[in-house]
Amino acid sequence: MTSMGARYTKRLAYWTAVLFVLWLLLSESFNVLHMAVGLAAAFLVASLRSELRVDRTLVIRWWSALLYAPWLFSRMLLSAVHISYLILHPRLPIKPVLFRHRANLGSEEAVLLMGNSITLTPGTVTVEADKEELIVHALDEKSTEDVASQRLETMVARVFPAGGGQG
Description:
The protein is mostly helical. It has two domains: 3-50, no CATH class; 62-159, no CATH class. Helices cover 58% and strands 11% of the residues. The chain is built from six helices and three strands. It has a three-stranded antiparallel β-sheet, with helices on one face. Strand 2 (124-129) and strand 3 form a beta hairpin. The two termini are 34 Å apart.
């Protein structure tokens, strides 16, 4: 076996083992059939993963990322309270909005974080996203404030360096 083939086999075995152990820890089921499915899934994911080639390194500002998480959580809580109000209000004052937001974040990873943050926030969902634009659905106008005011984009931009999040 060539050194390239041996390296591939070792990497495949390593990731299969890691994913299988994770499967066992998360599933807490140790019957033979369940473990066989877990091993097959781990092997499939490991073999698909091993074909991926990454040409760049993701660079993030860890301190900003650590500050971003509680900020996002607070926005999620405030939004949950607002959505609860809308749902419990006798007139149900929901006025759905679908809008486009032009993102100037410079990297796909930053847009991904922004899109996922929007979707995690109650009352909003990212319908479509590409490198420069997100299409967002919201239950009402107030639910769009963090996106429309650029507040969310500013917080996401702090997590990634100005060079587009690539090193």
